[in-house]
Amino acid sequence: MTTPASSPPPGAPGPPGPSPAVSPRSPKRARRHGASALYDIPGPRARARHLGYGVLTGLALAALVAWVIYLLVDTGQFSFVKWRPFGYRGIQELLLRGLGNTLKAFAMAAVLALALGGVLAAGRLSEHRPVRWLSMLLVEFFRAMPVLVMIFFIFVALQVQPLPALVAGLTLYNGSVLAEVFRSGVRSVDRGQREAAYALGMRKTQVMTHVLVPQAVRAMLPTIISQLVVALKDTSLGFLITYEEFLHAGRLIAINMDYTMPFIPVVIVISAIYIGLCMLLSWFATWVARRERGNVKNEAVDVAPAVAGSAMPGGHGPA
After folding, report:
1. Which residues 6+ apart lie within 8 Å of 99 measured at CB?
2. Angle at 147 between CA 279 and CA 173, to 5 degrees
3. Is the Cβ–Cβ distance between 138 and 79 less than 8 Å?
4. Where are the alpha helices (DSSP H) in 75-88?
5. CB-based contacts of 13: which residues, under 8 Å, 6+ apart?
6. Angle formed by the axes of helices 213-234 and 162-188, to 10°?
7. What are the residue ranges of helices labelled H in the chain?
8. Counting Cβ atoms within 10 Å, is residue 161 exposed (0-12), middle (13-18) or buried (19+)?
9. Whether the Cβ atoms of residue 248 and residue 239 lie closer than 8 Å to each other
10. Average pLDDT over the chain, rounded to an integer
């Protein structure tokens, strides 16, 4: 005699049915649709909505650019008279001399800021408390001090020439910022790397130079380049202390009555050159990062698979 199957009580969930087939996405397709560990892959409606947002934003930016160009044309900023001074040899030499002075101040400030940042970062990471506290005090002071105030103080109070005053101010400010970048980059390396190096008998200096710093530099490189871009743009503060840099040369042209005061053309030319220099720095950082990834010292090494056996010297594997 067969017993009929008991039906589930009302409200109770029934037996689980067959799960719907899930079509796995290939990694290439997931990357194409913007897969991420932070959010789900957008569906067709979301992609269409994002496309609409992008089109509307592009149209709004194009309308804004068109309106600005219309205002410039309407006020005669693109007339031949406004742009004629840039064809004079004296104006070109003045701009090139100012650009050279800007690059000279930037090169000196960048090298000194990187060196100062490394010294202050080493002090922040020191095991000696007085050295660590002194380095922290210097870093926090120069980071909080406006760079223009430091430049003016060095130029006026210490009676220093414009170029050393500008370089010193940029070095103190950017060096203190880079010190925190270096310190946080070294701290970001996995703690196991440091412990493994110490277990191999390496000294602290060897651990820092051969293990921690090479790994930290790859993580710090974008931030370092961003800070160097800030230093490049801050060289324009030199015109306030009569340093003949690029912006100072442009100002001399813009306020010249003989050239009908071409203020907007000077701004366009100087802005384009500054943007080009910043993009060149970014390209250089990308090239360095790509070259670092292609270095044979950083490539993965094939390791032989483990073989079952005794871990003790002279031991024999299982029969």
Report:
1. 246, 249, 273
2. 75
3. no
4. 80-83
5. none
6. 150
7. 27-32, 44-74, 80-83, 89-124, 129-144, 147-152, 162-188, 191-199, 204-207, 213-234, 246-254, 263-293
8. exposed
9. yes
10. 80
Which residue spans within the chain are E strands per DSSP? none
What's the whole-model pTM score? Answer: 0.71
Which of the pair, 40 or 246, is modelled with greater confidence?
246
| Crossing angle between the packed helical segments 213-234 and 89-124, to the nearest 10 degrees | 140
> From the CB of residue 38, how many other CB atoms can be counted at a distance below 10 Å?
5
* Cα separation, 151 vs 149, whole angstroms: 5
Take residue 95 and report the two structure tokens written for it. Answer: 């701009």
Q: Residue 75 CB: number of other CB atoms within 10 A?
A: 11
Whose tokens are 């010249």? That residue is: 256
Per-residue confidence band for 171, with pLDDT thresholds at 50, 70 and 90 = very high
Taking the C-alpha atoms of residue 307 and residue 314, their distance in angstroms, rounded to an integer, is 15
107 vs 190, more confident: 107
Instruction: Determine the Cα–Cα distance for residues 160 and 176; give it in Å rounded to an integer.
Output: 21
What's CA 71's distance to the chain center, in Å?
35
What CA–CA distance (Å, rounded) separates 91 from 252?
10
Residues 6+ apart with CB under 8 A from 181: 117, 220, 223, 224, 227
Q: Alpha helix (H) ranges present in 75-127?
A: 80-83, 89-124
**Other beta carbons within 10 Å of 292:** 14
